[in-house]
Design a protein that fits this description.
single chain, 162 residues, flat
């Protein structure tokens, strides 16, 4: 008795359920983005109207940056979901970029006066590891690397050359 994943009714139904769930997440994420934009406007308005009026302190600017970055992260997550809906794949590069943006947001809003050195070093290690991971995913394929389906033709060409 053979198993065909393309015609299996259980897999078809569960895939349809997952697509419905992802569509719901897309709608919810669009709402979160809109609420986030309203929140950024509200935070900026509140910071500008408190004395001294129309002046922002460094902490006000960092709080505003944090709000902006949160909306940008939501937009990246929205993009991840829409790519999944269109292509039915998870875009690893975009997921890594989203993670880097989330880490960057955390680094921007950190209060280094209240943190232990261990926390700062751990954050630096995460930034470095994610940056290397993103570089590995993003870099162009090396011409010397040969895929498994190309090995036979490459070996044959090497034997033909004198």
């Amino acid at each position: 008795m053979g198993f065909d994943p393309e015609t299996d009714p259980l897999l078809k139904r569960t895939q349809q359920l997952i697509l419905i769930a992802v569509r719901a997440l897309v709608v919810l994420m669009a709402m979160v983005i809109l609420w986030g934009v309203v929140d950024v406007i509200w935070v900026l308005y509140e910071r500008l109207r408190t004395p001294p009026v129309m002046l922002l302190t460094i902490s006000d600017i960092l709080a505003t940056f944090g709000a902006f970055m949160a909306v940008m992260i939501a937009i990246e997550i929205f993009e991840n979901l829409t790519i999944y809906l269109r292509k039915n794949v998870i875009a690893v590069e975009l997921v890594m970029a989203t993670a880097l943006m989330a880490i960057a947001r955390k680094v921007i809003i950190l209060d280094y006066n209240k943190l232990s050195p261990d926390y700062v070093w751990a954050t630096a290690a995460i930034v470095l590891a994610m940056s290397i991971g993103y570089w590995l995913v993003k870099r162009p394929p090396d011409a010397t690397q040969v895929g498994p389906d190309e090995q036979d033709t490459t070996a044959a060409k090497a034997r033909e050359q004198p």
